[in-house]
Model the fold of this input.
Amino acid sequence: MSRRARILAGTAGALALAALPLVVKNTFFLHVCILVFMWTVLGAAWNVLGGFAGQVSFGHAALFAIGSYATIILFLKAGIAPWWGIPLGGVAAAGLSVPIGLLCFRLRGPYFSLATLAVAELARLVALNWEWLTNGPIGFLITTLPPLQILGYSVDWESKLPFYALAAFLMMAALLSTAWLRQSRLGAFLAAIREDEDAAEAVGIDTVRSKVVTLALSGFLAGLGGGFYAFYFRYVDPDAVLSIGLSMEMVFIAMVGGLGTVGGPLIGAVFLTTVGEAVRERFQVGHLVFYGLFMMLVIRFLPEGIWGRVLRLLARVQARVQRHGAA
Amino acid sequence: METFVQSLVSGVLMGALYAMIGIGLTVIFGVMRIINLAHGEMVMVGMFGAFWSQTLWGLDPFLSILLWAPVMFVGGMLLYRFLLRKIIPGGELNTLLYTAGLSLLVANLALLAWTGDYRTITLAYTQAPMRPLGIAVPGALAIGFGVAVVVTVALWLFLGRTDMGRAIRATSQNPEAAVLMGVDVERVAVVAFGLGTALAGAAGVLLAPSLYLYPTVGELLIVKSFVIVVLGGLGSVPGAIAGGLLLGVAESLGAVYVSSTYKDGIGYVIFLLVLLYRPSGLFGVGKR
Done:
């Protein structure tokens, strides 16, 4: 797509998002939209590192958990409202990403992936056992949200609308920041690192620094998603926010949507949420069966992901049109 | 002193079973350069195999290794031949993600079929611990240890003395040279994957009477098996044996002297330290 077409599409998308809750009043539908937006943020967070830089993390649940614990602890223990807590949670996750990155990025490829798995498991053990801070296995529950006035109207926390608006905003921010990253200097470094790390180093790219900065950006987005999760579901415990399953869901969204694409996580999130909600109704346990199955099928038959394939087909059509136009 | 000896002994017993899982992973890695994230699920399948053959058919769990090891061997070969082989040319990250998907699939199929309940296997003849030299040794673990030693020695002889064993070692040392020497690398890969899976399954059978059984136990075991092979050096069989024993002892001593709640964390900390400072393993024989 050309630059102008992309800006047009983005604006049209944003307007459609704003108009949607005015047209559709169904609460369940809004709930599904909120989940899609939240998962898009998380998929984009993973994709920044896994898709753009080619660094596969199996421990992103840890960054998500830092965001959600920060938001809920700041609110319950320090009285800081969640809408301030969410960005603070993102900052906390980004901050902790730096030491994690400096540690794990000494390793490459599959070794890096294994190290992130170990970091996430360690984080889970800490959350389970450091009761003074995390309340251990019991976790935290928000019973009432503080009142908020916007333009003279008081916000109704029992309706889905405020959460819809916030989630849509976070999603736009996540998609815009990945779009920016892709055309930035750092994005070019990351593509070089993904394709051949030794060559990237040989041409003078500070690979560790590029990767750490990217992990911090990824951690910031994952922390925002985690903070939103705590705000929306009002409940945080180690099982909910620190499971391997959660890390895998982020991988799944980016993979199915299309690694290293801007729009991929949105497609992946729609897919995950609709399939997830459909099978969750039928199977109380084991709905991750389908995630595992789809992941295997996508890698086998569609390694570029759904959005990646669509983009390639579009490019082919465009090339054909141009050729015919010239002739 | 007595607690020290006690936990040292149970650490070594557990460590031999860990080593078996680690050898399976390291043989697969050595030949195919695949990090099989579904390895823990193979152990889980072995554990449930032992459980069901005892519950349904009254088969002794330790004897059922004679049934489940060959079944897992064939299963592993089929898995490699029909599912994994086509993925490998796509690169190591694709393979890693693919086996991650496989691990989710197997664990959650087990969750659907058998629910998330914790199960145990109780054996009449291992209720009372054995007491050689005044040290209490859990009976089930001691028998498991004995069988694991026999299996490991048999594997050692297989790798050292048979043509197939030599071909496996040759391929993991240098695949290109192995091809030039007339080794059918594709066949070696199929056998090695079957062998690795069978070892994981057999270790699961032996562990079943000593651990809780639940479908997601693989998550815990996979991280442990990575600790083991990274400790010993990826691709090295003696390294995996040493790594398994070390992890068993470290966990068992750590549970007594450090903290029992952080027992599973000890392995992760060792893992990160080794990855950072000795990425080719404690003995420097691993491949990167």
In short: Residues 45 and 249 of chain A are 12 Å apart (CA to CA). Chain A touches chain B at residues 54, 56, 58, 103, 106-107, 109-111, 113-115, 117-119, 121-122, 125, 128-129, 244-245, 248, 251, 255, 283, 285-289, 291-296, 299-300, 303 (CB under 8 Å).
